[in-house]
Design brief:
By secondary structure, the chain is of the alpha/beta class. The protein has helices at about 15-20, 55-60, 75-80, 100-105, 120-135, 135-145, 175-185, 210-215, 235-240, 260-270, 305-325; strands spanning about 1-10, 25-35, 40-45, 45-50, 65-70, 85-90, 110, 165-170, 190-195, 205, 220, 245-250, 270-275, 295-300. α1 links the parallel β1 and β2 (about 25-35). About 45% of the residues are buried. It holds the Pfam family 2-Hacid_dh.
Length: about 350
Amino acid sequence: MTRVLVAGDHFVTPALVVDALDRFTNLDIVTHSGPWPHTPFGRVGEVDEASDIEDELIDLLPGVEVVITQMAPFTERVLAAAPTLKLIVVTRGGPVNVNLAAAKARGIEVRSTPGRNAAAAAEHTIALLLAALRMIPATHASVLAGQWRSDLYALDAVGSELGGATVGLVGFGAIGRRVARILRAFDATVLVHDPYADPAALDGAESVALDELLSRSQVLSLHARLTAETRGMIGAKELAQLPHGAVLVNSARGGLLDYAAVAAALESGRLRAAAFDVFDVEPLPADSPLRTAPNAVLTPHLAGATVQTARRAAEQAADALAAWLTGATVPPAYVDVAPGITTPNPGSR
């Protein structure tokens, strides 16, 4: 029997994972439910985006060979208390809550579930884009306030369509590719900037340099991972290259974008609208200029939050365990990835 600790939470619940493990007959399963998302994650020891449950985890680890988790903190301290541990499966795009160097030094394999939220994040991106183009949150609020804004039918006030628009995607990984497919169904022209993208995956999109993409894009949507190469890649200079009245969407990582410059561009009208699910500081500070900027659509980092994402994460974790038990060759999460802007994001939720 292989002893498995399922350290779930209120999103990828222990019950979901246990159900996904039903295919196995040789497991001794122990479960624990952490406090996320009712209690926000944060830095725990030397790892990021984790629930502060080190002591509880240490108490549960004796005899455990495999852990499946989303937010449990595998710090040096926790790993030192787990001499029998052989495999950690993190049900996220990347194992940011694991001290990978310490795990590697102990011969512990670390795997994750990349792509688990690609469909959800792509659909949320399109929802944000449409909400911004058609000013849906603002007009919804006006109806609730008792207004009936027929003046918004004026030519200089109406929204615009995706059909026939040119949309630029910065980053062309699993989410960017899905967004491109949806955009083409709307009859939009899709431009892509990603020096590391597979040309065979473009499927009708046009690969261009960043300057050209910015100058042509009526809508700009960010889908890059956050690296030293991409941090702050869109600032005031880049926003000024967009056509006047462009729309900006970011559901990738807040660090890609200068949000003060975005707020200024919204205030001046250079940007017609913007929609964000991620921010450079989360939660969004009370004094953020985005809170008062016109035509800003904001959601609290929920792009990947669907029932299907949670179920997919549990199933992919079970697949990872099956591969490990059978000796299948799967690259561990701590193998260095290429420096591309859409290679797996260690911070992806």
